[in-house]
Structure prediction request, 240 residues.
Amino acid sequence: MKIKVVENYEEMSKEAAKILADAVKNAVNPVLGLATGSTPVGVYRELIGMYRDGEVSFKNVTTANLDEYVGLGAENPQSYVSFMKSNLFDYIDIDPSNTYIPDGKANDVQSECERYTKLLGNIPRTVQLLGLGSNGHIGFNEPGTPFARHTHIAELTQNTVSDNSRFFGSIDEVPRRAITMGIADIINAETVLLLASGKNKARAAYDMIKGEVSEECPASILQRHKNAVIILDKEAAWLL
Ligand code: F6R
Prediction:
C-alpha cells in the first residue's frame, strides 16, 4: 500500500482529484468506481473545478458506483443516484447513460446484484475510489463479510445506520439494507484509492494498515492489492 498523510480534508481532496483526473486523461477507456458519503464531496468539487477550467473532460468516461440503499430511487434525495447527480454528474460533461449505480428499487434485488456483478466484469475499473467506514467497512461490506463476495445485499450494522443517520431526518428513516459491490469486485480495480479524514476514522485506518488482513476489518484486504493508494489526513492518521 502507498500511504500518504496530508494536512487536512482539502489537501486530501486535491490529491485524490489529481489521481482521478490523470486516470481519465491517460486511460484509453477510463472507468471510475465512485463512492458517496462525506469523504468524496471535496474530490468531486475539485473535479468539477478542473472540468470548468478545461483541464479534464468526462465525455469518454464510464462510472460505476459502489452501492445504493434498497428501496431508494432517483426521486429520493437521500438515494445515491441523487447524491451523484447533485455532487458531480449534473456539473460535468459525462454521458448519463455511461453512469452505473445499483438499482435500489429493482423488483428483484437478488437479480439486480447478479446483473451488477456481470456489468462490473465487463467494465474493469481503472481507479476505484473508496471512503472508509468507522468500523472498517468499504462499500457496505460490513465486518465479517467474506472477501470472496461479489455484489450482494448487505444488512447495515447499527454502527453504520447511526453514522449515516446524519443524512436523514431521523435514524428511523435510514434504510437497513443496501446493494453493495463486494470485496471481490472492489479489488478487481487496477488502482484502489481510499480516502479517510477525521478522528472518527483513526481506529479503522490503523486496523486497515497495521492490523492483520481479516474479514473483521474489510479494508485490510487492501494490504494485498498490488496498487492501493491510501490518503489520510492528519486526524485520520493520528494512531499510526
Ligand atoms: C459510500 C460507501 C461507504 C462510505 C463510508 C464512509 O458509497 O460505500 O463505504 O464510503 O461509509 O462514509 P463517509 O464518507 O460519509 O464518512
Q: What stands out?
A: Helices lie at 9-26, 41-52, 80-87, 109-122, 158-164, 183-186, 202-210.
